[in-house]
Amino acid sequence: MDLEIDIEAPWPGDTDWADLAERALEALEQVAPEIGNGRLIASVLFTSDEEVHTLNREWRAKDKPTNVLSFPMLEREDLLELASEGPPEMLGDIALAHETCAREAAEKGVSVQDHASHLVVHGLLHLAGHDHEISDADADAMEALETKALAILGIADPYGDRS
């Protein structure tokens, strides 16, 4: 998959956010191989709470910011059946809100970079048709993929100990 990445203020320039997103994708491709189809394109927007709030209100009728929004453009079945040869296919768009990401990272006691990596993985899984709001089983399956991808990056399980 190729990522088209746009980074806007207030994301600070002391981190290579594009590289972070690419590394998150590479880790995710190891645990969710359907995302590794070379025909796929996804856009990742690192932006402000204000912009994500606007997108959330316009597209989801939720009048508040959130940490990450996902706008899938392929159905899961179509993704799974997508041949490796052919023209590019847009998987979808994700947008991360800086202020919410930074606040959540502080609350969790993790770096903004680690939390942003988690949100990129989470958003890409939504684009691939995973949904944690359907059932507990679906939530567990999605969280397991996230945890495996983050472990590849050396990032601790964001959901805590699962015994």
UniProtKB/TrEMBL annotation:
Any single biological process term in GO: rRNA processing
Sequence intervals crossing the membrane: none
Single GO cellular component term: cytoplasm
Cofactor: record remark: Binds 1 zinc ion.
Protein keywords: Cytoplasm, Endonuclease, Hydrolase, Metal-binding, Nuclease, Ribosome biogenesis, rRNA processing, Zinc
Binding site for Zn(2+): 122, 126, 132
Molecular function terms from GO: metalloendopeptidase activity; RNA endonuclease activity; zinc ion binding
Family membership noted in the UniProt record: Belongs to the endoribonuclease YbeY family.
Name the record gives this protein: Endoribonuclease YbeY
